[in-house]
Structure formats: structure tokens, C-alpha cells
Amino acid sequence: MCSAKGCRAEAVWVLAWNNPKLHTPERRKTWLACEEHREHLSQFLGVRGFLKDVVELEDWEASQD
Fold first, then answer.
1. What number of CA atoms fall less than 13 Å from residue 58's CA on the CB side?
2. How far, in Å, CA of 18 to CA of 30, rounded?
């Protein structure tokens, strides 16, 4: 499910991020995004310098096995 506030759409994207003030460089937190909110959430994280990667959910799940 999309991480955008109030959105209940199916997630298609994983936005991997970390806050360098709180997390070690290799740590990745994730937000999920639908098609509609991918750009907005990416910009939110990017402006803060937190965004590390945007990956399709299917590919992310395959890489976690």
C-alpha cells in the first residue's frame, strides 16, 4: 500500500532512503509508492538528501530473497 498520507492505492515503487544524521550509510528505510505519488514522495526525500534509490516493488522483493 502506498505510503502517501491518505492514499490506499497499491504500491508499485520502493523508495529506499536514510537519514545520515540517524542511520549508518548502508541502512535503508523504505517507503512504498503508487504511480501517482512516486514523484511527490521522491521529491520530498530528495530535497532533504535522504533518497538513495527508487526501484520497482517487484524487483525490490526479488532482491530481498
1. 1
2. 8
